[in-house]
User: Fold this.
Amino acid sequence: MEIREAIPADAGRIHDIAVTSWLDTYAEIYSERSKAHFVQEAYPQEEVVRAIRTAEEARGEYFYVGIIDEEIVGFIHAVDVEGTWEIIRLYVLPKYQQNGIGRRLIRELERQGAVPLEVYVEARNYKARQFLTSFGFEELSEMTEEVFGQVESVIRLRLRHVAS
Assistant:
């Protein structure tokens, strides 16, 4: 597997991965109305291109893709929020999940110095929560927020670092 910085030409593939992965993950969590809202509103190509360009130009963001056999199969996007790096997007195509791709993408953020690292995830997204806690993230707090027209509990997690 190869990891590299995302480039604007990746935007279409990133959009497709996000929609496919999100719909697979949240099929039983979100209503049909919320899923339709997500597909319509999430990851417009021009927004993905803007995020990639911002990450290229500023060191306050990282945007990486994971590639297998010359095909992008996952991506991660993190931003610096007042000294804490927040993963705002992490998706891996369902057929490539549980193969270490998400772990490698997070490790790349760490390698670049993106620490401390936090992420917010819907409380009912048990698969993501299990992955993140197995990786070393600890749950810090829970809140409710409206996500695509539906109120959901959201968990804030932070990556625990062990002193070397």
